[in-house]
Structure formats: structure tokens, C-alpha cells
Design goal:
The chain is of the alpha+beta class. The protein has four helices and two strands; from the N terminus they run ααββαα.
Amino acid sequence: MNHTASSLPTIVQEIADEMAARSDRGEVASYIPELASVHNRRFGLVVVDADGKVAAAGDSEMPFSIQSISKVFTLTLALGLVGDKLWERVGREPSGSPFNSIVQLEYERGKPRNPFINAGGSR
């Protein structure tokens, strides 16, 4: 794809079209009730540029459960509120454990190694 003359809406639509054509979609997380009923062919994309212009394509109007991506938004809010002091309470290292393991969190007495540790996970 040559995007030098393309506009943002065109690029976003090209990405959505490419994803719609792909057959390697994987499986949804059937153990999470909010995701179990979602069809694996769903794909939506919305991009907002620095000027506030919005480009959307695919299933972008479909409501969806954000699950763990909410951790990124929460981290951003926390950094905005307390700045670098946050890193005194939360680490920035990989845990080396599966996403749903709280073993490392228990071992380090509640101080997460990184802001994306799944504190609601199971062993």
C-alpha cells in the first residue's frame, strides 16, 4: 500500500478491508462471559488525529467490552495525577508469569511489578 497520497480515512478503510479479508482470526476468550458471544470476525478501527479529525471503519460502531485495555487508560490517568511518584508503588518490570497469575503479586506483598498485572487473576 502506498499511503503518500492517501488521507487518514482512506488508510483506516484499507486496514479494515484487509482485516475483513483475513481468515486467521484466532479464538475469542470463551472463559470470559463478555467475550464468549463475540464473533471472531469483528474488527473495528477508529483513529483520531492531532487536529481531532476522526476516521472510522469496520465494526467501529459496535459496543464492546474493553477488558484489560482499561489498564492503559487507568495508568494514563494515574500518571497525570501523581506523575513519576507512581513508580514508587508500581514497578516497570515484566512479571515473567502468565497474564492471569497473581503469584508474583503475592510474592512481592502486593506491589505489582508493572501496571498491567492482572490483580483479579487466578492462579
